[in-house]
What does this fold into?
Amino acid sequence: SQDLASTKYCLAAPGKEYLVYQPENGAFSVKLTAGTYTSEWFNPTTNSTASTGKVDAAGGDQSFSPPFSGPAVLLKQLNK
It folds into this structure.
């Protein structure tokens, strides 16, 4: 969905799971449904997971900054 992430690269089951690709450096936003999500950053340049964590989203646009420079992939999954 091009409407869910400012990068225009987002595969999503809205309210459950979001997979966002950031082809450039820098922060980007994702339109999340309210909830607590687990997150995982993946560095496609090194083919490695860079970090994991949790985010409490109030709903709407949420800003994210990759923990490394270059292209990035962010996976967000709603906690059950």
Q: What stands out?
A: The radius of gyration is 11 Å. The first strand starts at residue 10 and ends at 13. The chain is about 0% helix and 60% strand.
